[in-house]
Design a protein that fits this description.
InterPro entries: NADH_DH_suC, NADH_quin_OxRdtase_su_C/D-like, NADH_UbQ_OxRdtase_30kDa_su, NADH_UbQ_OxRdtase_CS. This protein has one domain: NADH:ubiquinone oxidoreductase Nqo5 subunit (Beta Polymerase, domain 2, 2-Layer Sandwich), CATH 3.30.460.80. 19% of the residues lie in helices and 28% in strands. It has 3 helices and 7 strands.
Amino acid sequence: MQGTLSVWLAKRGLIHRSLGFDYQGIETLQIKPEDLHSIAVILYVYGYNYLRSQCAYDVAPGGLLASVYHLTRIEYGVNQAEEVCIKVFTHRSNPRIPSVFWVWKSTDFQERESYDMLGITYYSHPRLKRILMPESWIGWPLRKDYIAPNFYEIQDAY
């Protein structure tokens, strides 16, 4: 079943894929990386003026990486704000997604954290650099196939 936003995008010829609804009834849409920036601008103009959160995760070891955007349409006098979740999947071999920093400035540190932990490059981001790990850190700690350098497991540590 498609939600109202998915129908609205389809009527205007904007390519996306509906992933259904989450447990709270929020519509989830999949957008291709190359379409993200234009659809982000369209959603902002349509009224989704608040980026509630941006996060990223590793879908499966050796598989895709995902960047997730939770958007809210805030309007004066409306009791129940409209929300939508946008997911963008990218290959781990060259994970590149356009930054939405120029649409929603609040994504600044969130995209930087996703870069730092998973290695997703948000191109056109003005200050994309590590913020949690030292610049000398090798690898992406939240990837499921990550092996920590110099890691020694403690056996029978009870």
